[in-house]
Design goal:
Helices cover 13% and strands 37% of the residues. By secondary structure, it is mainly beta.
């Protein structure tokens, strides 16, 4: 089977779930999907990257504070 390794994704482009799976597996990123937990269940389904952010705020359950994480985050939606 062919490897579908991506080192980056671009806003406005479509990618197959198997390509996004490889990207997430090899890159330290966060992916938000409107397909709930089913993002990787259909490898051939296409998703469009609709936005990208350089980081995000995360709430700590340990100390109750909010921290900004500098971690690339992408928003994808089913095509």
């Amino acid at each position: 089977m062919t490897q579908h390794r991506l080192s980056d994704v671009e806003v406005g482009k479509n990618y197959k779930a198997k390509e996004l799976d490889s990207f997430v597996s090899t890159t330290d990123v966060l992916v938000l999907s409107n397909n709930d937990s089913q993002l990787f269940t259909e490898p051939e389904r296409e998703y469009k990257v609709i936005d990208a952010f350089g980081g995000f705020f995360e709430h700590s359950s340990e100390d109750g504070e909010k921290y900004f994480r500098e971690k690339k985050a992408y928003v994808v939606e089913k095509v």
